[in-house]
Amino acid sequence: LSQDTVLGRLGANLTLRCWDEGPGNATVSWRAEERGRSQRLPTGNALPLHRLRHEDAGTYTCFVGSRRLRSLRLLVQEPPETPRVSCYRRSHDHDVLCEWPLRAKPSPGTRAMLWV
Q1: Is residue 57 classed exposed, middle or buried when 0-12, 13-18 and 19+ CB atoms within 10 A define those classes?
Q2: Which residues pair with 72 in a beta bridge?
Q3: Is 91 a domain residue?
């Protein structure tokens, strides 16, 4: 991941920061870009996001006046879980089949890996 990519967990609180150190008297504004739509957000160097949802994922850009300072890409992920995997083979001449139950519908970026 690039240093301008931020990972947030579904349901968690997160604060995006425009800069670590900068002039304290500058008015920082934020814009969120999601699926081609732009949304103006509260001002300030820190942008608090509460109870993250999948819909919060997108690009957040901070400005001073009309000057773009930084863009951050927010990815919202579900916390990892360890599945209960069961594997079996119908007979010696069949492949091994592994499966696991889902607790909920997987999010769009969900991946599964099986190491044998």
Answers
A1: buried
A2: 60
A3: no
Whichever domain contains 69, its CATH number is 2.60.40.10
Report yes or no: 48 and 15 within 8 Å, Cβ to Cβ: yes
The tokens describing 40, both together, are: 């103006």
Number of domains in the chain: 1
Instruction: Tell the burial category of 13 from Cβ atoms under 10 Å away from its Cβ (0-12, 13-18, 19+).
Output: exposed
Query: What burial letters (b/e) apply to 15-43, b meaning 16+ CB within 10 Å?
Result: ebebeeeeeeeeebbbebeeeeeeeeeee
Does residue 46 form part of some domain? Answer: yes
63 and 29 Cβ atoms separated by less than 8 Å: yes
Q: Is the pTM of this model over 0.90?
A: no
* 99, β-bridge pairs: 86
* pLDDT by position in tens, the chain (length 116): 688 999 999 999 999 999 866 566 788 999 998 766 677 787 888 999 999 998 899 999 999 888 999 999 999 987 777 778 888 888 888 888 888 887 777 666 677 776 76
